[in-house]
Amino acid sequence: MALHRVNTDDYQQQLDQKVARLREAYASYTNLEPEVFPSPPSHYRLRAEFKMWQEGGRVDYAMYKQGEYKKPFVIEEFTVGSERINELMPLLLEAINNSEILRKRLFCTEFLTTLGGDALITLIYHKQLDEIWEAEARALQEQLGVPVLGRSRKQKIVLDRDYVIEKLDIDGRTYEYKQVEGSFTQPNGEICRSMIQWARSCCEGSKETDLLELYCGNGNFTIPLAEKFRNVLATEISKVSVNAAQENIAANGVENLHILRLSAEEFTQAIDKVRPFRRLKDFDLDSYDFSTILVDPPRAGLDTDTCAMIARFPRILYISCNPETQLENLAELTKTHKVERFAIFDQFPYTDHTESGVLLVKK
């Protein structure tokens, strides 16, 4: 099925197939019936990237089938994209086609939006951007009422701002997130909210203990979970994400959370006292009483050393964008822990991809 246009009547059937497949895949580790969190059937994706097809003095949004990069098909609608993306697409395209300066050598356009309707447009070129381009882009920005950002090789021109502000209502409170262009953000806002609420429900009764989180990004999970614990220590390797997380901590008034710029592998070395880190000189890791560790690793899953390290914790909250690698890790983790909760999040409808979550408790 082409993802730019989907038949929403098929949604429940494709979700049921995913759930059946994952239930069978996880059967070796749990007989729990999964908690299933469906996506909105359409307009669920908050970010999108389109190649720009240049032909006959005109540019159009285009996509390619995998392995067929010389056979684009023009995109006139994007059913899976947010309402805001679909609103902006024709307006932007018309403006670009009315300006040779904006159109010439444009090869990619990116949209970043939020559930609240904030938006950012990035135009990416095979040319250096000059003052003439900037003047045209500023006029475009004023016309659309949306921040525009220009990129080319070794060049980034921010006309207004390079981020959007997301606001998520979670369990009666609104959390605010700065989401920076080019950094990781959850693509499906409603599923993101469901994952946060599920994670919070897994952490009830932990107020007298501490939380450790690896791969914390911009604080997506960390900030709403902070009130469930006495103290929270979180790590992230991306400098951009760490900076955004620090701003998000301040914006949400969280005072019991500290972010460290360390990879999961580096933190494992630190907690095992393999080598010291200057970034940890003001932190006494032994003073924390970690009852729970939260991990949301990249698609490759947890490396062997990190997997062994987290197995020491009483409770492991493991959210994964790749159930296959999570299952590989569960082969080790279930030697010491049992699966207490199992969740399926339909982050990417109409594809084979699914996010999964497990709460593991020490045997």
TrEMBL record:
GO cellular component: cytosol
TM spans (from-to): none
Keywords: Methyltransferase, S-adenosyl-L-methionine, Transferase, tRNA processing
GO molecular function, one term: rRNA binding
Pfam families in the record: tRNA_U5-meth_tr (PF05958)
Lineage: superkingdom: Bacteria
Annotated catalysed reactions: uridine(54) in tRNA + S-adenosyl-L-methionine = 5-methyluridine(54) in tRNA + S-adenosyl-L-homocysteine + H(+); uridine(341) in tmRNA + S-adenosyl-L-methionine = 5-methyluridine(341) in tmRNA + S-adenosyl-L-homocysteine + H(+)
GO biological process annotation, one example: tRNA methylation
Positions annotated as active site in the UniProt record: C321 (nucleophile), C321, E355 (proton acceptor)
Binding locations of S-adenosyl-L-methionine: Q186, Y215, N220, E236, D296
Record-listed E.C. numbers: 2.1.1.35
HAMAP family registered for this protein in UniProt: RNA_methyltr_TrmA (MF_01011)
Sequence similarity: Belongs to the class I-like SAM-binding methyltransferase superfamily. RNA M5U methyltransferase family. TrmA subfamily.
PANTHER family: TRNA/TMRNA (URACIL-C(5))-METHYLTRANSFERASE, TRNA_TMRNA (URACIL-C(5))-METHYLTRANSFERASE
UniProt function note: Dual-specificity methyltransferase that catalyzes the formation of 5-methyluridine at position 54 (m5U54) in all tRNAs, and that of position 341 (m5U341) in tmRNA (transfer-mRNA).
Protein name: tRNA/tmRNA (uracil-C(5))-methyltransferase
Source organism of this protein record: Microbulbifer pacificus
Gene coding for it: trmA
